Model the fold of this input.
Amino acid sequence: MAKVGGIQQKQRPLNMQKLIPFEQAIVRKYPEQVVLVTTRSREGKANVMTAGWSTIASEEPPMFVLGIADEAYTLELIRQTSQFVVAFPSEQMAEQALFAGSHSGRDRDKPAEANIGLQDGVAVKAPLIRDAVANFECTLVQMLKPGDCHLVIGQVVAAHVNTVAGLHRLYTLAKGHVLGGVRQAQP
Ligand SMILES: Cc1cc2nc3c(=O)[nH]c(=O)nc-3n(C[C@H](O)[C@H](O)[C@H](O)COP(=O)(O)O)c2cc1C
Done:
């Protein structure tokens, strides 16, 4: 037992950092939180995609930033309409989140196929997700492409919460997911 500041401490293995390639280190990021992003085409078709790359970009005014890949239909619809909704799925929505993250709305009707209930918002045409814990209607502020991914920044113009008290948020899917594939949360 070593004594640190008068307190007995158990001997631990030596803690230090070792240099490894980015691809190996970044898997320690998981589990990663997920959100659902909804959009609606000019023709009125609603779409939902799952996104792990999201965070708050500003508190005042409130903004979200999403990392969206080139090929996502969602990106095309955000470019087309400058509107989207960020929703926090509820615990019961894991299967729907997996479905929305594994199929493209370009050739499917994901809300209908996965039975994802939608509701009209008040500020944008992209729909709210009825069973989500919370929904944030956003208008596009800026889109950046610093690398191979688009950073989509949207200002929150209306926020909604579920009327069911005690509904828990689905924080993550069981396995870690990355763009274009699935990988284990831990190496
Ligand atoms: C858990 C999970 C997280 C994901 N995170 C992202 C993400 O942050 N950005 C992204 O572009 N795609 C992400 N994807 C993949 C998209 O959801 C997927 O490519 C989807 O088919 C795109 O739908 P869309 O073409 O209808 O827009 C994720 C998938 C899963 C399952």
